[in-house]
Amino acid sequence: MIGKVLGNRYEIVEKIGGGGMALVYKAKCKLLNRYVAIKILRNEFTNDEEFIAKFKRESQAAASLSHPNIVNVYDVGIEDNIYYIVMEYVKGQTLKELIKQKGKIYISEAVNISIQIAEALSHAHDNHIVHRDIKPHNILMTEDGRAKVTDFGIARAATSTTMTNTSSVIGSVHYFSPEQARGGYTDEKSDIYSLGIVMYEMVTGKLPFQGDSPISVALKHVQENVLSPKIIEASVPHNFESIIMKCVKKNQSLRYNSTKELLTDLRKCKVSDEGDFIKLDDAHDSPTRIIPAVKDDSNMINNNKRRSRQKKTNENNKDNKNKRFITIAAVISALLVAAVLIGMFFIMQLQDFLTVQEVEVPDVVGLSDDMARQKIESLDLKYEVLGEDYSSKYEAGFVMEQKVEAGDLRKVGWPIQVIISKGQELVTVPSLIYMLESDINIELNNIGLGEVNIEYENSDFPTDTIIRQSPEPYEEVPAGTEINLVISKGPEINTLFMPKFVGRDIQSVKSELAALGLAQGNIDYDTSDEYAEDIVIRQSIPANTEVEEGEQVSFIVSLGSTQPQDTEDDPQDGEDTGGDTQEDPTEDNSSIEKSRSLVIANLPTDKETVRVKIVKITSGESKVVYNQVHNTTDAPFSVTVSGTGRAFFTVYFDDEDHMTREINFEEAN
Ligand code: ATP
Ligand code: MG
Questions:
Q1: Which of 166, 138, 150 is nearest to 45 (CA)?
Q2: What's this model's pTM, rounded to 2 decimal places?
Q3: Catalytic positions
Q4: Residue 316 has pLDDT above 60, yes or no
Q5: For atom 1 of ligand 1, which residue has the closest CA?
Q6: What class, spelled out in words, does domain 5-88 have in CATH?
Q7: Ligand 1 in contact with 72 (CB < 6 A)?
Q8: How confident is the model at residue 590 (pLDDT cuts 50, 70, 90)?
Q9: Using a 6 Å cutoff on CB, does residue 137 contact ligand 1?
Q10: Rounded to whole angstroms, what are the CA distances from 535 to 406, 457, 520, 619?
């Protein structure tokens, strides 16, 4: 597998691990130049059509989830009977490894991790995706301590067909809810149960049920109650213990109704362990103690007995009637007396009230809670905090509003109600990077952020995905803060018109190439009667052709004329073709090749090795005759070259033109 490229873009780099269903590899996405994890389905499953169909459906559903605590699924594919899921590569370890390494996890950290898993589940449940295989192996811990849940929905594909014959999948049985173990109806609450077991394992370092076989463990989930984690680890706070116990109730209806409810309790637990804020209904989890029903029955029996007894005692009742009348009369007169007394009390109060003095209500908005209290109470008014609210104007703990206006007159003792600021409401910015522009609204809905400003930019990110955001992901910002997004327009392709390089000096052409963003191709040399030495004779792409930036252009550069340089006073001499032919130095005077030594006196001193290339140029043709890497300490050395007539030899060091030498093979050595 290593080195294989899937989907024409994911190059497999190394194996990371493997579970019951699949093997996991690290791969490089060549398109976006980042590492990804690729999960490849084991061969034994790839012939099972029903399984494949489910696998595809479920992993596509998981790909729709996007949450900081969920391992992102980027892609799903099939190639040569290889089924794979491409996901975010998480550097770190699994929660199982972390528990093994640490033995137990500190309570505060365990609560934090539980909150993150619950957040992930809550997001998935909102999207109607149930995980069904929550276990510490499926929770990846990043190096900075963030938990990310993986393998969403994949277990569902596994359950119907393959589970019983795959040992590792059966490993999950330690985290199975009783309904899963029974093969019954599973839903969001099954995830809550499994999370309860994970929480239990985090704080105790142990699993609640162990057994010789998967079946015996599964049975225990159905039949035996989970014992309190406090038995193993006494430091587990009371409320966290209750949360765990509520998650692992056998009866689904006694568990948390939703991960949202669970999150509320976990968050409270994070703040303090005071009070009992978790309601456990133990009575209903045990089928033998149906006390209310029994009670109801005995009431019914009592009522019946009472009814039959009534008949017999009717006469006695008649005798009692007079007595009862007297009692009722006494009660009524007592009530009348009480009413009169209360009335008198109120009248006295009212008189009091009417005679008390009035004071001017002070302005306490903007004062601290304490100061406002002092100021109001010093005037004998009553200070009353009605509630708290977010405010962008007043700091937390300061009065942001008073219910009776300053300057109004009120009786002494009158309650002056105020609202205290909680400071600015802070909102956690979600991570939108890689998300599609069309999904922004869904993601930002109801979060409480302000206007969204969008800019577009060329980038290697796929078109329409978000490249950058400010504020940054997970930053806490005041509610209403605007969010700025930069969205990819896809890679930028600049084009330009090819300049005319023919007739120009090769050195100036080289520097212009770089400035234009064009790449330099081969530079070959040839003799020319038309162009002087170092002047470009030909360019591989004609002038005025539209080309993309980065395009490579090759050149043929003049070595100067092959004709003997005539005296300047007779420039027309070149027209004498007869004479030229006779004197053409490149013409073969003999067909027998001769050898000569070409001495390379120096090599560059600023590097250790250098590639030495020698190109032989004869009329109209150039050919590489030597191409070898040398240590720079090899110089001086000589290279034997051969030919007939005259030829030019250009020496390149690492493709840089170093020198050109002419050799006349007809001359004596
Ligand atoms: P199961 O088959 O029940 O899911 P499992 O969870 O142990 O069993 P896999 O899901 O195949 O097995 O994962 C195997 C291992 O690959 C994990 O333990 C983890 O170390 C690694 N791994 C999985 N996904 C990623 C990822 N996205 N990034 C980095 N490593 C991963
Ligand atoms: Mg897994």
A1: 166
A2: 0.48
A3: 133
A4: no
A5: 19
A6: alpha beta
A7: no
A8: low
A9: yes
A10: 91, 41, 16, 17
